[in-house]
## 1
Amino acid sequence: MTSHLSELFRKYRAWCPNSDARPLRTAPPVLATPPDTLNPARPGGGAGGSGRIDRGIRLATGSIRILIRNRQLLWFSLFTGLVMIFSVVSGLYLQFISGTALFPGTDLATGPAQVMISHGSLPWIALTFIIGLVSTFITYYLLAALIACVSLIHSGHTATVRDGLAYAGQYLRPLFSWAIIWACIGVVFSFFTNPSTMGTEPGDFGIIYGTMAFMACLYALTLFVVPLLVLAREDLAAAVTGSLFLFRKVWAEILVCFLIYFLIVFAILLTSLVPMIAIGFSSGSASAAGAVVVAYMLVMLLLVFIGSTIVGITITGLYLYGKTGILPAMFEGKQNG
């Protein structure tokens, strides 16, 4: 694999007479500049509000098209889905042993009679941090590998999941550092959103919604940290500031992309719910109704898993556009991918 990546590097750096003497890490193959980015005067899809909306639509639809044409990327959906399941199950178990009902307001899966680890205690903080760190680090590692694969496709090459994972392995340290930061933020978020006391005190919902809004804004502002770490080889501090700069350039495209994805998911869930209700609940059978609920949850999980890969592809496209000012041709179906 190293020789394969080295060949790609020499091919796309052949214009430099000393390129063969440089180490591989100085110019990773996924950073190869394709011919369509060499002309900065080429239009990127129009100017003004209508142009930004059009670019957002093309990035969203192009991301779906890229995944359909490169179905090997669905492995990232599977891996990310497993990480999500681990995070949810471990989080619910920690909530259970903390004496908190898994579903507040119901009699389903209440906590044990004796609290094993109290919410907010040092053991609880340690376990919450470890669970968040493991799930976040693996998620960022998978995202980095997906970004590497999409960048290789952007350069006109066939990208395998193994190639992406191997390339992302070179950036484990900065990815781990970024995961530590988000794990700490997750601990703070969990501390202020204790389900056992949620809504029992005045202002609780204000704290909860304020914390969630802060988390969402922080995630959006740091959307390009991983691409900058992996593709631009920036250090963590430069990647965070660079992400803020890129977000300011492409915030409208981001909004359009995620609005389109929301509408697609809503339409799929709505169209799948109608026949499920008609078949399951019209029979009057409790088992049929339960099967409908399970099937609907599986549809939602499938959408989340596949959607995570589509979003990763979109992040790469937004990053490439933000850096070059040119919409990548593969998002318009004009290039491999």
Note: Residues 1-6, 8-47 have pLDDT under 50 and may be disordered.
## 2
Amino acid sequence: MKVYVLVFFLQVFFNIFKTMEIKYTYENKVRALLFNSVWINLISIASVYFSIDSMFKGHWDVMIGYVIGSVVGKWVAMRHFENYRDKVYKLLNKKSNARQRISK
């Protein structure tokens, strides 16, 4: 049971860091991106090791924790971190709508 919980949390953190990697790439934050990449690799190695080790022992239900952990991690990252792309889109769309009103 401990392995299932460990795999679940490793997958949550992996997906949070993976989403942050996209954010740091978009913002061109190289230093933060490099540190984030180290954490992604360490977490993915641990997650894959514990998952495959459990599956070789016949515990295929570890995949449930793996998948649910990845979904929860992606949800946490998308809901609780700043979405700069959306903010830029809304800002540009607002300016475009203002120009259209002025030209009419």
Note: The mean pLDDT is 85.
